[in-house]
Amino acid sequence: MSLSSISSAADDEIYFDEESIIVSKTDRRGIITYANDVFIHVSGYAEAQLIGQPHNILRHSDMPACVFRLLWDTLEAGREIFAYVLNRSREGRPYWVFAHVTPSFDSSGQIVGYHSSRRVPYPDALPKVKALYAELLRMERAAASRREGIEVSLQFLNRTLEAAGISYGEFVFSLSASTRLGAAA
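Request: output the structure for the sequence above.
Response:
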C-alpha cells in the first residue's frame, strides 16, 4: 500500500484503498500478536507500538460499546462475526472498516486467539450504520452507568433484529445492495 492510497476528507477521516485488507491477530485477551503492513500504515502506529497492546487501542469514542459486547460474545461462542467498526488512528483520526472477525482454534478445538480482516466499508451501508450507532451511543451515554448503557443498547439492538426476523449477520449484510446476494448468518 502506498502513502497515496490513504486520503482524508475535510473532516480528517481516513479512507484507504478498496483493494487493501487490514489484518490483525490477537490472543484470547485481545492483545495484538500480529499486524500487517496495511494495519500499521492506516492506524499510524509502528509495529512495535501495536504488538503486545490491547486491540482496543484503536477504539473510537463514538463507537457503541454494545457492538463490541456482541462481537466478543459471538467470538467466545466460537462463531465468526461481521461488523462495521469506527476506529481511531494514533493521531485521533477516524476510519471506518467492515470487519470479519473469527476465532482461531488449536488442534483440540480450543479458542487460542482471534483473526480479523477489515475492508473498506460499503458506502451505501454507512449512513444506516451511522444512524443506528448514533442511537445506540445515545442510549449508552444516557444510562446511569456504563454497564447499564451497554445492556440497554444491546437489548434495543436485539429487539430490532427480532422485529425484523433476522440475525445480526443477515442484518449487517442487508445494509448494502452490494452484499445482499452473499448474506452470512
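The two ends are 32 Å apart (CA to CA).
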